[in-house]
Specification:
Layout lengths: L3 H5 L10 H6 L32 H16 L1
């Protein structure tokens, strides 16, 4: 998904991407952003990890950090 802004910046194509993705893309100065013509649903993000790392302290800390940061965005 993150490569989409780079690809469309060199074409006359359009794409729907998250604003943060488009703004953070190299070459974003070539992109024109506008509101979508239809209402878009909210996106859900999930964390997925292997069962064996469920109780690993470092993994727990990192998952908690990701949840905290994502909750602020």
């Amino acid at each position: 998904m993150f490569v989409v802004p780079l690809l469309i910046a060199r074409t006359r194509l359009t794409a729907t991407v998250m604003r943060r993705v488009a703004m953070g893309a190299a070459g974003s100065n070539k992109l024109v952003m506008f509101p979508p013509p239809v209402a878009l649903p909210r996106m859900a993000f999930d964390l997925i990890w292997h069962r064996r790392s469920e109780s690993h302290p470092t993994q727990q800390w990192f998952r908690g950090l990701v949840e905290e940061v994502a909750g602020r965005v």
